[in-house]
Specification:
Radius of gyration: 13 Å
Number of strands: 5
CATH class: Alpha Beta
Largest sheet: 5 strands, mixed
CATH topology: YaeB-like fold
Length: 98
């Protein structure tokens, strides 16, 4: 399976990195390592997560309060968003409607 992270989800990663790096030096890098590890696990587990909005499946990160929203089409996993779960649910729905 091939994993594709769309530009908007990459922007989410930069935002998350910056937030955690402001909290403590090195924490932003740890955040990225953990999220990329979660994304890599989709090669094995893609499709087992429930559909939460339209055709988006949601995988929760192991270490951080973030959700990875993805779709599966054939042999491609497309990451559409990586969002902080502490956000307003209405904001998350609006973001996924883009």
């Amino acid at each position: 399976m091939k994993i594709h992270i769309v530009d908007q989800a990459e922007d989410d990663l930069v935002e998350g990195h910056n937030f955690y790096e402001d909290q403590a030096p090195g924490l932003g890098v740890y955040f990225l390592d953990c999220i990329y590890s979660d994304v890599d696990s989709l090669v094995l587990y893609a499709g087992i997560h429930r559909i939460v909005h339209k055709n988006y499946r949601r995988m929760l990160s192991e270490r951080f309060p973030f959700a990875i929203y993805y779709t599966v089409s054939g042999d491609e996993i497309k990451i559409h968003a990586i969002i902080d779960c502490r956000r307003d649910p209405a904001w998350i729905r609006d973001r996924l409607n883009m």
